[in-house]
Every structure is written in C-alpha cells, then in structure tokens.
C-alpha cells in the first residue's frame, strides 16, 4: 500500500467527481491530467455546458488552461448524471441552514448525491467525501450505504485558499479519515497521484473535526481582532497600529478586523461544531461577534454622516453610499456569505441609496455599477473588500474620484488605502478600528 498508482492502472481507473464547482472542477481536471479516466458530474446543465465550451467564469489563475488540457486529453468528460466508476469523489455544497433559529449544516445536496450513486455502487468501490461536514456524518452515510454493498468510504476535507486553488491543491498537506484503515489507504493512493504535500491518515470523525477546527481557529481569532477594533474605537487608539505592535511578539499572531466574515468556509464551518456539541460556547460567541460587524459598520457610517451634517441640513434628499468591493475577500469573484450583502441590506433599510462597485464579483443580490456611476454625486465611499484595485489608485485617479463626489468621505473597513494620499485630494478618511480619527 502507499505506492503511487502506476500509469497503466490510472487509465483503467474510472473516477466520478460529483459537483463541479470551485473544488470539484479543479480536482476532476487535475486527476484527468494525471491520466485517470474522469467523469465530471454536475446537476446544473448550464454549468456542464459552460465547462464543455470553456466559457465558465473564473478568477482562478490557470484553471481554464487546466480544464482545457483535461478535456482535450480525452480523460475528462463532463455530464449531468453519474455513471458506474471505481471511485466517487463528492464535492457538492454543504451550506448552512437556519432551523428554529439555530444554524446547521444543510445536507440536502450531499444526500441527493448519495441517493443518485446508490444504484451504481458495486462491492469494492471507494467513495471520498470532500465536502465539509459535521463530525459523525461520514459514519452515518457509511451505515446507510454499506447495508447492501461492501464499499469503502473516506473523508478528505479540502483546505485550499480560493484565488490560489491550483497551487494549494497540489502543495497543501491533506488529512484523510477513513471509516476503516483500508478506505483511508485507498483514498491516499488517489491523492498521491498529484499531491506533493504530506498526507496524514486518521479516522473519519477526526478528519471531519480537523477541517472544522482549522476554520474555527481563524474565526475565533478574527472575532478577537474585531472585538479589539470595537474597543479601540471606544478608547481612542488605532487598532491596526496596536495589532501590528502586538504581533511583534514572537508567539502572538492576531488576525485582521473587518466588516464581518464571509465565504463558504470560515463563516459557516464553526456552526457545524456548534450543532454537535453543547460545549462550543466560545465558538458560538465568536461567530455571533463576527456576524455583528456589518451592523457595526452601518452604525459607523450613520455616525460619520450625522456628525458631518450641519443641523440646518435637516432631513434632505437620500444620501448616496458607494460600496467598493462586495466579494467576501480580496481579488476573488465569490460573493457567498459576503458581509457586504448585510451591510447593503441594512443601509437600504436605513434609507440610503446604495451603489456597489466591484469588477471582480460574479453575481450579487443588488445591482452592480461601473466606477463612474457608483461615485457620481456620492456622499461616501465605503471599502468592504481588499481588492488590489483600490490600493492601486494613484493621485490622478483619486483627484478624478474626488471631483465626482458630493461629499469627500471614505470609510475603509480593511485598512488598505494610503490615508495621506486620500487626504491630499480632499477626502476625510475614516478607518474601521481607528479610534484616533473616529
Ligand atoms: N470553495 C472553497 O474554497 C472550499 C474550500 C474548502 C472546502 N469547500 C467545501 O467543498 C464543498 C464544495 O464547495 P464548492 O465551493 O466547490 O461549491 P460550489 O457551489 O462551487 O460547487 C458545487 C457544485 O455541486 C453541484 N451539485 C449540487 N448538487 C449536486 C448533485 N446532487 N450532483 C451533482 N452536482 C451537484 C452544484 O451545481 C455546483 O456546481 C463544500 O462542502 C464546501 O464547504 C469549499
């Protein structure tokens, strides 16, 4: 065991990758390039057509080239229905759902994928679940599927960083948890074909928990940074300066505050622990604190504008807020769970006109504007995402931006702008967590 699968065996090994999104498509393509016979399956017909025609949108560097290579090698076929294979890799969504006021993992997609696989399964097949799931889920699925068939089942959580998926898919260490040792070892053989990082084997429940612990660690750390930001505003210090200085300590690494935590992982995964344990008290508090940040930002916007208004300007025309960046993190197109959605929703409720500008975003609940229309006659710019574009504005560009604004005010919730440069062109600059200039 543990030896890499020889190339002639790869051609004969059929792998069905279920779910061709951010994770499944690169994984399927990578396996096809390694020589496996791969069937990529997605229930979304449009997605399948876009992959076949290479017209899907992506900001992942080199993904288009990889998929093109995989399809033209003849090793990757994409379709809407699974077919019989030796190995099934499951990469379907596992979002959060609210039931009776409690957030839980929505296993609908995973259960549907398993239901579709069931009639295809044969003795000796290996199923690998990459989707993030609450502890105990792999064992529950095994109990259902192994009633009639002798299958192998492992959980191999994905830990890639969006925006850098192709490199991390290959270089990251992986944890594989099997329902038994054979399952874990069989899964390892598949990943060894392209992973250069270390592969650690364990049981399924531990692997499930490891993935959730990694993201929870980050969520709790960000919550601490957010709490420090709130305190900094209260006591009149700049949290960014304070965190930088505290991080000079060799054993301290405080993450950055911001307008909230978004994305498909960090803002969701801690709930999958909370749903399984009464002891997850710190984890719940951290989650709630991070979820409170969009409202904190909205209150700050209101306070800044109220303080600027001279009293005679009593209730007047709608103020315009220009939001820069609505994706959940910088330089990616993903808007899932983005705190921007909550910020925009609350601002609209408060009676503001909101115009969002984000040239990276793939889709959003609210209309997107180009830069000029977003800032035309605007009362305030609010940066919610650390896209490189906003850091790169030079004096000439900022002068143009300033000339279009009604009030020259900016709130930077990510601390990415050159504050003096914006001040030079006439902006009043506010930064989340900077209590020295609140
Ligand atoms: N995106 C990330 O960076 C990331 C990182 C680590 C882990 N994960 C986890 O990986 C899993 C997949 O995430 P993603 O970001 O790739 O999701 P995604 O939404 O981008 O893609 C999932 C795809 O699965 C398809 N699908 C849904 N049900 C299906 C079914 N029954 N059969 C076939 N296809 C089906 C959807 O149409 C979609 O195209 C999730 O559990 C997520 O938490 C994601």
Automatic annotation (TrEMBL):
GO terms for biological process: polysaccharide biosynthetic process. Residues 322-419 form the UDP-glucose/GDP-mannose dehydrogenase C-terminal domain. It catalyses: UDP-N-acetyl-alpha-D-mannosamine + 2 NAD(+) + H2O = UDP-N-acetyl-alpha-D-mannosaminouronate + 2 NADH + 3 H(+). This is UDP-N-acetyl-D-mannosamine dehydrogenase. Gene3D superfamilies: NAD(P)-binding Rossmann-like Domain. The keyword Cytoplasm does not apply. PANTHER family: UDP-N-ACETYL-D-MANNOSAMINE DEHYDROGENASE (PTHR43491:SF2).
